[in-house]
Structure formats: structure tokens, C-alpha cells
Amino acid sequence: MNITITNVFGYSNKGDSAIVLSMLDALNKELGDVEIAIESWHPELDQDIYKNCRVFDRLWKGRRCEKFGNFSPYPENLLESVTKLPYLINSIQSNNGPLSESIFLSSKEEELISQLQESDVIVSVGGGFLLGSIESLVHLYSLKIATLSNTPVVIYAQSIGPFDNKLVRELAASVLQNVDYITVRDNISKENLESMGVTSPKIEVTADAAFLFEPEYTSNIKDINNDINNSGFSVGITVRNWRYPNSKNPNKKRKNYRQQLSKFVDYINSEYADHIYFFNHTEQDSAEAERIIDMSSCESDITNLRSDIPPRNLKHLIGKMDLFVGTRMHSTIFSMEMGVPTISIAYLPKSIDLMQRVNLDKYVIPIEKTNKNDLQIMLDNIIRNEQEYLQTMTKKIQRLRKLARKNVEIVNKHAQS
């Protein structure tokens, strides 16, 4: 079986990497003899990470841009934007536009298109990148090309929408209307798709691919692992420098987040924790953690772990925590998967939806409303009712694992069609 995974855009983010690794694990385990190719934003890095896959450069090359994290909708050159964007719009409006009409393709792009045409199924990688505004165009272009390849296209456990740009919303609806099956990882994404008028492919709510992600202990984390083992009651935290795109005063929101978390860290340290560990998905997370640590009064009892810990190792270490407070959604998936009581700080609706699906929605707070007192109440409740919390969480996590496997079944079905 020949499978191509498109829209892969970042090993440097541990959550995104966990999704891809989980997909590769699940596809190889469940489907047996599989050849997998990847359309990557960072082919030079990903070829070393995903060693058993063929790795292709992306069809629309965007510059790296701090505003958008590791990717950007802005093209590397003007020629790319003046050829690919009109092609995307025109092919959608006419609902045809064979691949040969996409002019100014490089030889490497033609090689990827041949790979798409020869695949048994094309899978758009799990995650959350079809939302917002123009940052979605690069991914929509790849998806549009995929739908023209005469190969079944499956959207794999994504969060989709909302779109705050009318044109991009219409483009997204038109592209998604022509895929063969859509699985989403949260209920709000299904609602977004239905409100956009996406009706042709079946839309099914499953679960994030990372619910099947396997942790791993290796010698490169021996010192950290031993330190945690000797630390007593340990609390793990993830943070991020969020942009607050809907706020009129994002700097004020960012300042509040840091102040309230630093106060909460002090409370954790004074009442419960022998040691606090900050786990980082990116280098930017590590810098944000340092800002919060500097504002706290218990720096000697805090460790800001390095940001280059591989994702499987990261999940193993998170699993050794006694309690976890996560802003990064995949860090909360890691912690709950490992049986650790978890509080979620939600920067997007996906985190709220996740906690609702495990019947723990009273333990999530929107990032713009981060408040030390509310977090303190959540923490105290967990400590008092830990067994009840764990029973609820364990039962629901098992259900989400089954739903994560459903994604693979759907891919297999369409590959065989």
C-alpha cells in the first residue's frame, strides 16, 4: 500500500511531531506492508527523523515567520504567489483545473505530484492548520492539488476553522467539499465545517492521533529521569507565548498570563510540590517559561527543561509527574494518557473540547482568563478528589484511544477503494 501524508509542517514543535510519529506508528502497525511518503515544510530535517519515509519539499514554499511560528503564508518569491494563488482560486471556481495547468512547477514539485497520483490514498496530516486567514492558503493549495490527482483524499483528525477571512473561508469550503472523508478531533470543527456548507464528504468526530503516541525512555534523558525520581512530589507545566489574536490589547493579556502563572507557581511550591518542571515544546516555550520563573519567588525549586528533548522522551518524563498544568494541548494529552491528573489552560477551543470529552471541563480555563485563584481551586479539588478524577479520566481516555484508531480504519478503507 502506498500512502502520501501532506501538509507536514514542523518537527520542531513536539505536539506536531507527536502527531506525525503517531500516524506513522498506527499506519505501519495496523496496515502492515506500507510505503509512506511525506510532503514536508522541513524536508532536510524530516528525512532524518522519518527515516523509513520518502520526504518531499512542500508545493507552496512559505518563508519562516515568527508571527506564524515555524511557517508563514508569505511566499519565498513573487513568482510563486502570482502563479499559485490565481491557480488555486480559478481551479476552485471552475471545480476542475487539471494538474497540468498548474504552471511554473519545479522538477521537485512535479515529482511530488507524480507521487500523489501513484498513491493508494492521500492523507492530510492531523493537527490544526486550516483556520484563521491567509496562513491557510499554502495548505489549501496542497489539498487542492491532492483532490485533482484521482487519488482518495482523507483529512486525518484535524481541528478546522474558524476562518476570519471570507475569501479564505470560501476557498477552504470548496477544497474540503472535494475530499473523500473528513475526520476531526473536536466537535467544534464539525460545527465549523457544517456552517461553511461542507456537506459532500462524511464528517466524523474521532480523536487526536497522539492518543496512540508511545513514550520512550532512552539514555539521553537518564540524568533528567533520575532527578525527577529523586524530587518527591513533582508538578509539570507547559506554557506558550500566545498572540491573543482576538484581543484589542494582547500585551495586557500576555502580561496577565505571566503574572497569574507565576503566582500560581508560588502557590504550588508553597503548598504541594517539592519540585516544579517546565516542559517545552519549542524554544519559544522555553523563553516564556524563563519569564514566568523570573517573576516567581521559588526559582531554586524549579527546573526549565531543555527544548530539544525528543517527543517520545518528553511523554515519558511527563508521565513521571504527580500533577500537570498544560497550556500546550498535546502536553495535556501526554499527561492524561500517562495517568497524571491534569489542569488545562486553553489557547484555542480544541483544549476546551478535549477536557469536555473526558468529563473534566471544570479543570480547564481559557488562556485570556488565566487567574491564580481559579487555578488554585482546580488544584485543591484534584488533591482532595484524586481517585475520582483518575477514574473519570481513565475511562474516557480509553474511549479516545479507540476513536484515534478509527482514523486508521478510515484510511485503510479508502486505500482499498
TrEMBL record:
<dbReference type="GO" id="GO:0016740">
    <property type="term" value="F:transferase activity"/>
</dbReference>
<keyword id="KW-0808">Transferase</keyword>
<protein>
    <submittedName>
        <fullName>Polysaccharide pyruvyl transferase</fullName>
    </submittedName>
</protein>
<dbReference type="InterPro" id="IPR007345">
    <property type="entry name" value="Polysacch_pyruvyl_Trfase"/>
</dbReference>
<feature type="domain" description="Polysaccharide pyruvyl transferase">
    <location>
        <begin position="13"/>
        <end position="347"/>
    </location>
</feature>
<dbReference type="Pfam" id="PF04230">
    <property type="entry name" value="PS_pyruv_trans"/>
</dbReference>
